């Protein structure tokens, strides 16, 4: 049986603080349970990554597309774009500068590796710069410095990004608030929260939220599922069509399945396998044999849904 393997030989290679966080929260007892929680957490984190990646790309391109429509390529350098402070002093512009610096450093490194002598880096295109920005740039652009001041419109309001473009960038923002300014503030706060969560995943920190009420597997996994739902909600606020396509392709359902107590139980050997009759086993024999021998998922349709069978271990 797999749980009889020598897991004690593997655990010393995992740092004690990391294992301690799993043991404190999930309370595994046996070595195979400890390792099972550790492996499950890796699978859970990898299932969340596509959601965060889609969120970042959708957010970035939605805002950039609208800003480009109004102010042209490299709109951040267009003097027509109004800002309550000097735009070069804003956090957003700092992220644009950082993106260009990163492109320059990468180019210089490539030149050296190829044996060349770095000269002047190329002039980077609008799309190259946008693609090199990080997540934080796109919640910084939501700050009030890019929003028209309240009160009477003095003719300059139309040159601010917000609120004129907010409904085009966040087509379903009313799911946060029917008031434009309130929705922008709430979305900015949510994006900051999800950006910090993304960083935790990328730095291999615990993917559950540590809090006084998080004391076991159920409560820890509940905090993960809340994050998944919040990612879905923000994507829906940007464009419901994107959220719909992600749901149709199974991204959200896949992540929620992985991030569940039931899935954790498979990795800690605490699951209860479904009992099959002899007839059911005969019906599945060929499919299961192929899944095992080829190590490939075997799919079938039932009730207009696609299902998959694969060998877990």
Keywords:
313 residues, mainly alpha, 2 domains, two-stranded antiparallel ribbon, 12 helices
Description:
This protein is mainly alpha-helical and 313 residues long. The protein has twelve helices and two strands. The protein has two domains: 2-272, no CATH class; 276-313, no CATH class. It has helices spanning 16-26, 31-71, 91-113, 126-132, 137-140, 166-169, 180-202, 217-238, 240-248, 251-258, 261-267, 278-294, and strands at residues 298-302, 305-309. It has a two-stranded antiparallel sheet with strand order 1-2. Strand 1 (298-302) and strand 2 form a beta hairpin. The mean pLDDT is 94.
Write the SSE topology.
Layout lengths: L15 H11 L4 H41 L19 H23 L12 H7 L4 H4 L25 H4 L10 H23 L14 H22 L1 H9 L2 H8 L2 H7 L10 H17 L3 E5 L2 E5 L4
Antiparallel strand pairs: 1-2
Concise structural overview:
This protein is mostly helical and 313 residues long.
**Coarse shape:** elongated
How helix-rich are the residues, as a percent range? 55-70%
The major sheet is characterized as: 2 strands, antiparallel
How many β-strand runs? 2
Structural class: mainly alpha
Q: How many domains would you count in the coordinates?
A: 2
SSE topology string: HHHHHHHHHHHHEE
Number of helices: 12
Give the radius of gyration: 25 Å
- Strand arrangement across the biggest beta sheet: 1-2
Provide the β-strand percentage band: under 5%
Quote the distance from N terminus to C terminus.
11 Å
Give the overall pLDDT as a whole number: 94
Identify low-pLDDT runs. none
């Amino acid at each position: 049986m797999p749980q009889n393997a020598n897991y004690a030989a593997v655990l010393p290679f995992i740092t004690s603080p990391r294992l301690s966080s799993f043991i404190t929260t999930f309370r595994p007892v046996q070595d195979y349970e400890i390792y099972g929680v550790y492996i499950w957490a890796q699978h859970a984190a990898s299932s969340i990554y596509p959601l965060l990646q889609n969120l970042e790309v959708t957010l970035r391109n939605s805002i950039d597309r609208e800003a480009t429509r109004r102010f042209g390529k490299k709109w951040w350098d267009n003097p027509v774009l109004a800002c309550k402070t000097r735009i070069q002093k804003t956090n957003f512009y700092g992220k644009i500068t950082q993106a260009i610096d990163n492109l320059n450093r990468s180019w210089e490194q490539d030149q050296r590796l190829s044996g060349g002598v770095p000269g002047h880096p190329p002039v980077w295109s609008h799309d190259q710069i946008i693609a090199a920005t990080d997540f934080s740039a796109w919640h910084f652009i939501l700050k009030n410095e890019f929003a028209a001041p309240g009160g009477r419109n003095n003719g300059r309001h139309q040159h601010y990004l917000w609120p004129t473009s907010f409904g085009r960038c966040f087509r379903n923002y009313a799911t946060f608030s029917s008031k434009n300014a309130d929705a922008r503030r709430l979305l900015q706060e949510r994006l900051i929260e999800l950006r910090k969560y993304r960083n935790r995943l990328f730095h291999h920190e615990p993917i559950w939220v540590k809090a006084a009420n998080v004391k076991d597997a159920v409560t820890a996994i509940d905090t993960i599922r809340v994050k998944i739902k919040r990612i879905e909600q923000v994507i829906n606020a940007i464009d419901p069509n994107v959220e719909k396509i992600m749901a149709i392709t199974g991204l959200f359902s896949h992540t929620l399945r992985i991030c569940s107590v039931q899935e954790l139980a498979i990795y800690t050997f605490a699951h209860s396998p479904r009992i099959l009759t002899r007839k059911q086993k005969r019906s599945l024999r060929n499919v299961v044999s192929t899944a095992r021998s080829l190590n490939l998922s075997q799919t079938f349709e039932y009730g207009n849904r696609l299902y998959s069978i694969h060998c877990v271990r």
